[in-house]
Design a protein that fits this description.
- The protein is α+β, with helices and mostly antiparallel strands and 62 residues long.
- The protein has a single domain, classed as Structural Genomics, Unknown Function 30-nov-00 1gh9 Mol_id (Rubredoxin-like).
- The protein has 2 helices and 3 strands.
- The chain has a 3-stranded antiparallel beta sheet, covered by helices on one side.
- 10% of the residues are buried.
Amino acid sequence: MDTYLVVVNGEEQYSIWPADRPVPDGWRTEGFGGDKQACLGHVGRVWTDMTPLSLRTPEPAA
């Protein structure tokens, strides 16, 4: 059975990544791991707003 990790980037976008490979630059582990279906299920539960963080954060008033 292949094992995966849930990873997240600076824009708070989620993905899964094979546990036996280095996490790509710009991504960090989220703390959940398991088989592919378990990881995809976790992503579906926690990633409820797919809007990137930069678009959710209001810009400061000029």
